[in-house]
Write a structure and sequence with these properties.
Layout lengths: L1 E6 L2 E3 L6 H4 L2 E5 L2 E4 L4 E10 L2 E7 L4 E10 L2 E6 L8 E5 L2
Antiparallel strand pairs: 1-2, 1-9, 3-4, 4-5, 5-6, 6-7, 7-8, 8-9
Amino acid sequence: MGTAGYKDGKPVGEPYCLTIVTEGLVFKEDGVVYVEEFDEDFEYWLKKNKNGMVLNFRGEHHYISYIVDKINDNEIGLVGEDDFQKNESCYLERK
């Protein structure tokens, strides 16, 4: 669940990511995540690029990607990866 924004390696302010990410994700198996907001399974994958590790999501009508900063097994920070999402950031905590 998205609980804050994410800046300079720390949670700060309010989450500012698409609600697809902040409203709840359930990782079901490798490559499949359930998105509570849409009651739909999305495909996901990790890919390393020049910006670091990128988490990609693809649903029937959505494609989004975030640079990942793993804090520990229960917390991650996400920052928008492309121009469309460049101002997005959120801090997610396992529920």
